[in-house]
Amino acid sequence: MSITLNREHLKGFVEQKDIVKIFPNIERAHNELDERTGAGGEMTGWTDLPSRIEDKFLDELVQLGDEVRSHSDCLISIGIGGSYLGIRATVEYLRDFKIPVYYAGNNMSVDYLHQLLETVKDKKISVVVISKSGTTTEPAIAFRIIKKFLEEKYSKEELKKRIICVTDGKKGALRKIADNNGYRSYVIPDDVGGRFSILTPVGLVPLAIAGVDIKSLVAGARKGQEEYSKLDVENNIAYQYAAIRYLLYKKGKYIEVTASFYDNMYYVIEWWKQLYGESEAKDGKGIFPSSLIMSTDLHSMGQLMQEGARNVFETFIDIERPKYKLSIPKDDEDLDKFNIVAGKDLDYVNTQAYKATASAHFEGGVPNMTLSLCQSDEFHLGELFYFYERAVAISGYLLNINPFNQPGVEAYKTKMFALLGRV
Ligand code: PA5
């Protein structure tokens, strides 16, 4: 298996026999998910999505990417939430994309957008605007501003090459804008919600333009679909992860910190936070998803993890073989006494820091587990995306909530629209 789950530091908190005890609940969740009979079953199109993506479609997107890059120096990806985080997670995880990707519509900070436009004003720009509903405030307003900015730079015909819309097949303002202006557009399937949409055109279109190997990403997700859809709690680590989280939650561990000693995991964990926060937190239930990037955050949050309220558990994401190597040099004076690691790779020290932290936090009363990825590439990320999606669905059903809706996010919007005087 290319992703593994180490449970050593759960001893005394959650044992295999505890997982076995809740097997009937896991079996019920599994069946409801696969038979689409559970809450929100109409939004479970993501479960077999990787195997349904046609290779021909991936070839078309690779060609689209080549074509857009041939006339662009940069891409602006406009979107928020599920129409933003997976894209940024992938780009920042891989860090070897072919053109720079900038993000807009993920906040409404005026200084941010002003500075972005200043940065790109002399570049050849293409834009992908992504919104499933086609009506979300942040991307809609950012697109208005950016469209106007592009209209001053390019002809209407040229804009048809440079603006690509990813939205609903029939409804929403963005669908109309695409159709009325003759912009190229791609459809987001009805049965896949925003936070589960990274393997739909939401993710695949901008990632193909960025030059990400989308075929490997999808191949990894297909492997994930095969591995993590099995009703086999002995071997299915997605189901183990879901069960462990549920059992820890029942013991009062209300916060999960996903931590990594690899800083390129930052946005992957941000994506995970949306997936888990929006999916589970309903009816007064749910684990609060939080994150730390180490060793940076050990120097600010290490005290809390070691000795704070014991209502937290931790999931580390480890990368066994980072892409690069960097040897630590020998120093003749050795004033800092680090000649003990001279000649070793920097990752050796990072790994010892991870092992020490996992052990110290466990001894301090924080149960923890580790997901290990063999290496940081598209394939393993695709597999990880599917792992997390499958696990949160099972976890949500264990909690007896609908993991596929997000009614709570409407409350602030209603008040904001009232303040804006929008009907
Ligand atoms: O998960 C969700 O559904 C939300 O976070 C959405 O992804 C986010 O609000 C963006 O929505 P849309 O793609 O409709 O603009």
Describe the structure.
With about 425 residues, the protein is of the alpha/beta class. The protein folds into two domains: about 5-35 and about 220-405, Glucose-6-phosphate isomerase like protein, domain 1 (Rossmann fold, 3-Layer(aba) Sandwich); about 45-210, Glucose-6-phosphate isomerase like protein, domain 1 (Rossmann fold, 3-Layer(aba) Sandwich), CATH 3.40.50. Helix content is about 50%, strand content about 15%. It has helices at about 15-20, 25-35, 50, 55-70, 85-95, 110-120, 135-150, 155-160, 175-180, 200-210, 215-230, 235-250, 265-280, 300-305, 345-365, 380-400, 410-420; strands at about 5, 75-80, 100-105, 125-130, 165, 185, 255-260, 290-295, 310-320, 370-375. It has a five-stranded mixed beta sheet with strand order 1-10-9-7-8, sandwiched between helices. Strands 3-2-4-5-6 form a five-stranded parallel beta sheet, sandwiched between helices. Helix 9 links the parallel strand 5 (about 165) and strand 6 (about 185). It starts with a strand and ends with a helix. The relative contact order is 0.16. The model has no long low-confidence stretch (mean pLDDT about 95). The structure holds 5-phosphoarabinonic acid.
Count of folded domains? 2
Calculate the terminal CA-CA distance, rounded to whole Å: 52 Å
Report the strand count.
Answer: 10
The CATH superfamily of the largest domain appears as Glucose-6-phosphate isomerase like protein, domain 1
Apparent shape: globular
Chain oligomer state:
single chain
CATH architecture of the largest domain: 3-Layer(aba) Sandwich
The third-level CATH topology of the largest domain is Rossmann fold
Classify the beta-strand content into a percent band.
Answer: 5-15%
Please tell me how large the radius of gyration is. 23 Å
